[in-house]
Hints:
By secondary structure, the chain is an alpha/beta fold. The chain folds into two domains: about 5-160 and about 340-385, NAD(P)-binding Rossmann-like Domain (Rossmann fold, 3-Layer(aba) Sandwich), CATH 3.40.50.720; about 165-335, Dihydrodipicolinate Reductase, domain 2 (2-Layer Sandwich), CATH 3.30.360.10. About 35% of the residues lie in helices and about 25% in strands. The chain contains 13 helices and 18 strands. The protein has helices at about 15-30, 45-50, 65-80, 90-100, 115-125, 140-150, 165-175, 190-200, 205-225, 240-250, 335-340, 355-370, 390-410; strands at about 5-10, 55-60, 85-90, 105, 125-130, 155-160, 180-190, 225-235, 270-280, 285-290, 300-310, 310-315, 325, 330-335, 340-345, 350, 420, 425-430. An eight-stranded mixed beta sheet has the order 12-11-7-10-9-8-17-18. It has a six-stranded parallel beta sheet with strand order 3-2-1-4-5-6, with helices on both faces. A two-stranded antiparallel sheet has the order 13-14. Helix 3 (about 65-80) links the parallel strand 2 (about 55-60) and strand 3 (about 85-90). The protein is globular.
Amino acid sequence: MTQPIRVAVVGGGMFFxxxxxxxxxxxxxxxxxxxxxxxxxxxxxxSVAGIPIEFCAIGTHSEKSGTAGRIAxxxxxxxxxxxxxxxxxxxxxxxxxxxxxxxxxxxxxxxxLHTPAILAALEAGVDVVTEKPLCLxxxxxxxxxxxxxxxxxxxxxDMHKRYDPFVRHMMTHSLxxxxxxxxxxxxxxxxxxxSTEVFAWAEKSNxxxxxxxxxxxxxxxxxxxxxxxxxxxxxxxxxxxxxxYGPLIAAQRGKLKSDLKKQGPIKTxxxxxxNITYDNGMRGDYNNAWINPEEFEAGVNQEIxxxxxxxxxxxxxxxxxxxxxxxxxxxxxxxxxxxxVVESAEVGxxxxxxxxxxxxxxxxxxxxxxxxxxxxxxxxxxxxxxAEQRWITMILESAAIVAQKNFDHSMKGEGAPVTARFSEEGxxxxxxxx
Length: 434
């Protein structure tokens, strides 16, 4: 019997519940072959169809929350087996790597904790699938990329927007019709609950790092461009004054101040605006926020528009055609293309969509390396790799620095004159007042 590929996960938050967990349940039931048509890799299905996946461990931070135990119990009930073993701890990946000896570690920790978990896994000879962003700084990215190369291990990054069928169709079938591209405009805005309720670590990140990386990846992956220069600004009106505005929002929803999960100021950006000049002369405008009211019609507001000299294209989530109105909930736009569910009389439910597709691409690369004898270099370009995220990490880090410097200058009445420029070696912040 073929030995299973053992998969452990660290992190059990919102994205685990919505995408990672259901995907792993599906992979454990039937392998990854069935998901490969969504990434144009179904020709590999016969060679990986017989490789079983075993979800062996789930690790979360606080034992008091009981999250890992809840997940383990749910998976055990659905799969009819013992389920993954629950672990808890500040560096929970260390115990998992030591005790469980997994083949794959899925990293779904807060953004600022990706790097130590990834490096520990690579040191243990384990392949990695990590949530975006890869990490927060260029120095961390280089550590990960170099370690992965030295150990000849896969580090896949869940950049699922490149697998969105609407975006993918525009970028692969229509882009060439638009002629030379003058400008790309991309928006991705998360609901207010993300920064005020879901993520305790919002102050350690920002909305551009958290979701702007998706559109950066789409542009880099499909257009093969590199950044030359960057300008960034941002706003700190709502979250920085949450002690004032939070109770007002709660009152409008018929709740009390004590009902707010976070009390006092939340020291992070409401929104960020990043403008990039690319090496082909194209401009990229990226707008990201995580303060969308919960009354907004969709879970997120996302759109990308490409302007060429011969044409233009736009993908807007709210224009995909699925709206519904329900008493007590209002009008809502749904996006089952990301994480839809098919009900099954035999197994209960199965996940489909580009959230699962991205994970399948990373798992396929790892299975091909571990079981089919492919080298890391031979698998280049078949999955979203850590190496592909180096320029994106550069942009994320520099944008955070530039936006903060511009904010500080603007508060002093000095304008917002700070920019950054890029090279293969890294980036340089240019502050004429600093």
